[in-house]
Every structure is written in structure tokens, then in C-alpha cells.
User: Fold this.
Amino acid sequence: MNLQNLANKTAMTGWQRASKAWWMMWMVLGVAALSACGSSPKNDYGKISPDKLYADAKDDANDGNFETAIKKLEKVESRAAGTLLAQQAQIDLAYAYYKTGEKAQSLAKLDRFIRLHPTSPALDYALYLQGLVNFNDDLGLFGRWANQNLAERDQQASKDAYESFRQLIDRFPKSKYSADARLRMNHIVNTLAAGEVRVAAYYLRRGAYLAAANRAQQAVKDYQQSPAIEEALWIMSQSYEQLGLMDLRDDARRVLKASFPDSAYLKDVKVPEAPTATKGS
Assistant:
């Protein structure tokens, strides 16, 4: 064998060895990648039955691990689609979203559940949870917003909560959630009324007497049983007096006296007697 042939053979052997080494390296990397994928949570969940995965998610939620519970419940919902288990997963997902502060996702899940499953045995709980997500038990504490223009605050969420609770009570009066829903409805009414009256008081302080009278009048109309109506009637009387509408002022004061005879707002305020019919009229 001449030197040229030996050189060619040596070069070929070196190339083959290099190719084999590269091939082996890629095989090792491929196996490692597949091993990594096989150990991911996604594939681990895939090896668990929907029933077992749901039970695990419930345990996570009970332990306060809502983020982990959400991941598992999402898998249950997709893998058990069309079953009662999937419906239950949807409800639990809505609650888990609520507990993690994902209000929009929780409401979206509940809206979809209520729309698609109007005969579900869990519908009363779905309505209750929908109201709970929108419910804000700090709504009445307006002191923390003393430096804000209360007329700009949106109370739509509380109104939505009230509507959900109302539907629950109307459709499922004997539901175990109805008693609590009634208490929350009363709270919503009182805090919404207080909000309206505070806005009316704001207008009164600013000298916007017509706006103050109209806002207070609306509060009296919409929330007749609320304690805040006492102040609303006083605001109406003050506003009407500033507007020169004395008959309306006197009417507001008479209603205030009749409804709240011990009201502090009646001090130093002359309340005209209601007109009486003359004999023979």
C-alpha cells in the first residue's frame, strides 16, 4: 500500500470515528431530553386517572395550595369533558380562582357553568359563589376614601352580587346557601344606600343642591328600609331649602319626623304639621 492510499484510509477512518462520536452524542442528548419530558408535571398528571387527580386537587385545595389545585383541576376538566366530574371540576376551579384573587377568571368559569348547566344540582352553589366573588364586605367603609370623589366610585360589582343572591333565593329558597345570601343582600342594600347618601352629602357640601336632592331622593326610592334614609331625607330638606322649594322641604321634613321621630337631624328644625282636611270638604 502506497503512502497516498494509507493517507486516504487514515482520513476515512478518522471521519468515520468523528461521525460516530457525533451520532453517539446526539443520541445521549435525545435520551436526556425524552427523560426530562417524561418527568414533567404534565406527563405525570397524564398517568393519573381523572378521579385520582381530582381527589389530589381537593387535598391541595384543603391545604391551601390553590395554585397546584388549579393545574390539576384544569386537567380534570379537559380529560373528563362531558361528565359530572368535569362539572364539579369547573365549580372547584371557580372557587380556586376566587381564592387566588383571579376574580375575572372565576366569574368567567361560573358564567359558563350557569349557562351550560341550568339543571345542575350544583346550580344553587354556583349562584352563591358568583355572588360571593362580587361581594365586597368593605363596601360600607367609605371613611378610607374620604379624600376621593365618591360620585366616581363604581358599585356595579355589589349590584351584580345582589342579583346573584336574589336569583339563588328565588329559585332555591330552601338551599343551605340561601340564609347567608339573605344576610349578604341586606348588607349590600345598606352599604349601597350609604354610598348613595354619601354622594348626596358630597354634592350638598359642594353647593350642588339640585344634584344633592336628586341623589338623596333616589336613595329614598331605592332603599326605603335602609338606616341611611334618615340622612337622605335631611339632605333633601336642606337642598330644597337652598333651592327655595319650601313645599318640598316641608314634605321631606314631615317624612323624616314620621319615620325617625328621635332623629338628631330634627333638632332646631321646625317641622310643619301635615295639612288636615276641613270639615265638610
Notes: Residues 162 and 184 are 8 Å apart (CA to CA). Residues 46-114 form a domain with the Serine Threonine Protein Phosphatase 5, Tetratricopeptide repeat fold (CATH 1.25.40.10).
